[in-house]
Write a structure and sequence with these properties.
mainly beta
Length: 352
């Protein structure tokens, strides 16, 4: 009975979202995702997460995942069964030191950690590595290039070839009014302000701001084409962040560097086959949502709502990362979850 009530509640919220969009003259489709399972299972001792895991998935459905502050990658099959660990702690060839982000391109796995970019085969064989001397927050792969999000200089992004040779820098950073901040660490203020990610489609490079929902579209040469704001994300958080960085600044009792008094409007974002999938921070105890945007127009196409997967009904929604994947039967969404010191990956599907 309790499970049925939760399902009805999630469905009702989806209907409200759809009805509200229609009332504003927008035809936005909405769909409730079906929770399938979670992993690792309670009896799996080979795979564990001490923080919300990040993941990528290859064409065979194998899952590569890691959690921050650890130094290796789990490889599991599509059912979540353990296959192997890739890498170990260190700074030499084949080692990792606090992985931060990873991507798959063809038959290669690119892993960004705190000091370098490493490339492995999907079987875990080390291929090459190049050092990164600035703090890089994110990256993506664009054609035969790597795009790094690096705010250490005047620009926002760095374009490299696949061996790490720098080609050019481009992109404009947000600039705060430093007079509103008591801290002398201007780099730290800029780091917080420019929290976001690099996303690459087949034709364009994007920077997406997690704080403001702004999308900057660049061409293959790094020239800015347009700036657009994503509609449908949590506007109250966006307004709060604008006020914090550009209008009033921190409150008197804030100590930037010890207490951060803002929160992203976007948890995670992923590009897949013509669409941007945005994991919204706007959620309730029993419902989260993913917004789907057309990559060419950046217009909102669909809202996917999700509740808890079987076996986790007594908990609450606390999503961190997503990985969408089209299948012959619709869409699969892998969502990284956290609840009460327990971290896992939940699998959701659309209806056939």
């Amino acid at each position: 009975m309790m499970i049925k009530r939760r399902a009805l509640l999630v469905l009702a919220i989806c209907i409200v979202l759809l009805f509200g969009s229609t009332m504003r003259g927008e035809e936005i489709a909405s769909e409730k995702l079906i929770g399938i399972k979670y992993f690792p299972g309670d009896d799996d001792e080979n795979v564990y997460y001490k923080s919300p895991p990040q993941m990528v998935i290859d064409q065979k459905g194998n899952i590569y995942s890691f959690f921050r502050n650890e130094h290796f990658i789990f490889k599991t099959d599509k059912a979540g069964r353990f296959i192997k660990r890739i890498s170990q702690k260190g700074q030499g060839p084949g080692d990792l030191f606090r992985p931060w982000k990873m991507k798959i391109k063809g038959d290669k796995l690119f892993v960004l950690d705190a000091i370098a970019m490493s490339v492995f085969s999907l079987e875990g064989t080390f291929i090459r590595k190049f050092r990164i001397f600035n703090r890089v927050f994110n990256f993506d792969l664009f054609q035969d290039k790597i795009i790094l999000l690096d705010i250490s200089k005047d620009s926002l992004m760095v374009m490299c070839d696949l061996t790490g040779k720098r080609i050019k820098t481009f992109g404009v950073k947000y600039k705060p009014d430093f007079s509103k901040f008591k801290t002398g660490d201007k780099y730290f203020v800029e780091e917080c302000l420019n929290e976001g990610t690099v996303i690459c489609s087949e034709e364009n490079i994007f920077f997406v701001s997690y704080l403001f929902g702004d999308v900057f579209r660049y061409d293959s040469k790094g020239k800015l084409i347009e700036k657009k704001k994503l509609k449908g994300i949590d506007s109250s958080q966006v307004k709060r962040n604008i006020d914090y960085f550009f209008v009033n600044g921190p409150k008197e009792d804030d100590k930037l560097g010890q207490k951060i008094n803002f929160w992203p409007a976007i948890s995670d974002i992923f590009y897949h086959e013509g669409s941007l999938y945005v994991l919204d921070t706007k959620q309730s105890k029993n419902m989260g949502q993913i917004l789907s945007f057309a990559i060419k127009s950046l217009s909102l196409k669909k809202i996917y709502c999700f509740g808890l997967v079987p076996g986790r009904e007594s908990e609450a929604i606390a999503p961190y990362f997503i990985f969408p994947r089209k299948t012959s039967n619709g869409m699969n969404f892998y969502i990284s979850m956290y609840w009460n010191k327990d971290n896992y990956i939940a699998l959701y599907k659309t209806k056939k």
